[in-house]
Every structure is written in C-alpha cells, then in structure tokens.
Amino acid sequence: MHYMLMFNETAAEMAKRDHPQAAAAYWGGWTAYMGAIAQSGAMVSGNGLQLPETATTLRVGEGRRHVADGPFADTKEMLGGYVIIDVPDLDSALEWASRAPCATAGSVEIRPVLPAPVH
C-alpha cells in the first residue's frame, strides 16, 4: 500500500537549512533518512520543498481567482517535503515516519494514497 509521509517542520528547524553551523547536520540527517528509505526499497517518490515564503496560494470565489503570495495559513509548522512509500501496512508507515528527522521537533502526517481508478 502507498502512503504519503508529509514532513512538517518548525520555522527554527527550517532555518537550519542555510545556517552555517547547522546546515551540515540538518542535511546529513535528511540524507541518511531518505537514503535508508530508498535502500529498503520502500521509496516510490518524494521531494523536499522550497521555503513557505516561496509559495503562492490560489482561491476561487465568486467566479474569480484570488492569488496571494505565501502559504495559505499562519501555522507553527510548515510542510518541508514529502515522500511516497510502498509498505505493507500503516504500522510500517508509522515506523518510517518515526525515524524522520522532523518527528521530534515537528510532525509527520501519514496519509494513505488513493488507488488509481480502474476503468
């Protein structure tokens, strides 16, 4: 079964991406984690995301598009990336999620992926 793991990080954690003293450890943790998923054969796909400030949000109301710069909500955690994994069950997905570097300072949302429609 395919599950999406959505990695939510705090602003402090995301700031480590470019911090001279913290970047190596930050990226090293993520590289090791993603490498472990890939090596296990569970990885289907995944990507990190640019910082939330680069987001554009679209809403449609009254037949018109409303476009705003930035993320759609002011939250304490921001989506930093995702991975799709193929594992037997939710327990296996939870095991991978618990190993994510952001699990201790942010959160990981685990969601089953809808199967492709059969025609």
From TrEMBL:
Residues 1-115 form the YCII-related domain. Belongs to the YciI family. Signal peptide: none annotated. It comes from the Bacteria. InterPro entries: Dimeric_a/b-barrel (IPR011008), YCII (IPR005545). Pfam families: YCII (PF03795). This is YCII-related domain-containing protein.
